[in-house]
Amino acid sequence: MNDTTTPRAWPRKHLVANATIQVDLLSPRDGVDVARFVQKLPTHDLLFVRRDVSHPKVVTAWLDAIAQGSITSLAARCNGELVGCTAIVTDPRSWSRHVAELRVMVSPAWRGRGLGRLLTQECFALALGLGLEKLYVQMTVDQRSAIAVFEELGFRAEAVLRDHVKDRDGTSYDLAILSHHVAEVQSRFEVYGVADALGG
């Protein structure tokens, strides 16, 4: 079993769809890259997160939270361009400090190529290193492809919140919440192909 308390080496390189992807911790200095990346996302994708990350103040708050330690984020780059990023959002002062929200965003050009799966696997390792016991994700119920990927990685539906989010046009969507007890990941390395991601 891998020692998840050992600090991971960053950046980490992976071969995804015959391209080299460099995964590194997102830094508060990456604001310009993040803003440029978010602007390329379809508006519907923004419903994955609680706040509208296309707003500059929200991006600033995100980067501030990274600096303060309440969010741990990963950035995936191909040839220097940000093509995916994640956030593990914690609240150490809450009664649910063992739980974190996982957010994964991938550039449209990289959908269906395994990048989202790779980033989620890397986040499993990060979560274990942070001492977390449970991760949850939320997305609108029509995001069937994303839901399928998370379910393949062991996430299970916990709730559907009816008419819980509205897009900029005022259209309401049901919100699905899926969760994973990440401690179980350690016994599922081979099943879900996470062994490489959890390596040091």
What features would you highlight for this structure?
single chain, alpha+beta, Aminopeptidase, 6 helices, disordered N terminus
Description:
The protein is of the alpha+beta class. The longest helix is centred in the middle third of the chain and has 15 residues. The protein is about 25% helix and about 30% strand. The chain has a single domain, classed as Aminopeptidase. The N terminus is likely disordered. It is globular and about 40 Å long.
Write the layout of secondary structure elements.
Blueprint: E1 12-16, E2 19-25, H1 31-39, H2 56-68, E3 71-72, E4 74-78, E5 81-89, E6 99-106, H3 115-129, E7 134-140, H4 144-152, E8 156-166, E9 172-181, H5 189-192, H6 195-198
Q: Helicity level, as a percent range?
A: 25-40%
In total, the number of domains comes to: 1
Straight-line distance between termini: 11 Å
According to DSSP, the number of beta strands is 9
Low-confidence stretches: 1-5
Instruction: Report the C-alpha radius of gyration, rounded.
Output: 16 Å
Q: Report the portion of residues in β strands.
A: 25-35%
Q: Helix- and strand-based class?
A: alpha+beta
Number of helices: 6
CATH superfamily: Gcn5-related N-acetyltransferase (GNAT)
As an assembly, this protein is single chain
Which geometry do the CA atoms define? globular
Brief account:
With 200 residues, this protein is α+β, with helices and mostly antiparallel strands. The chain has helices spanning 31-39, 56-68, 115-129, 144-152, 189-192, 195-198, and strands spanning 12-16, 19-25, 71-72, 74-78, 81-89, 99-106, 134-140, 156-166, 172-181.
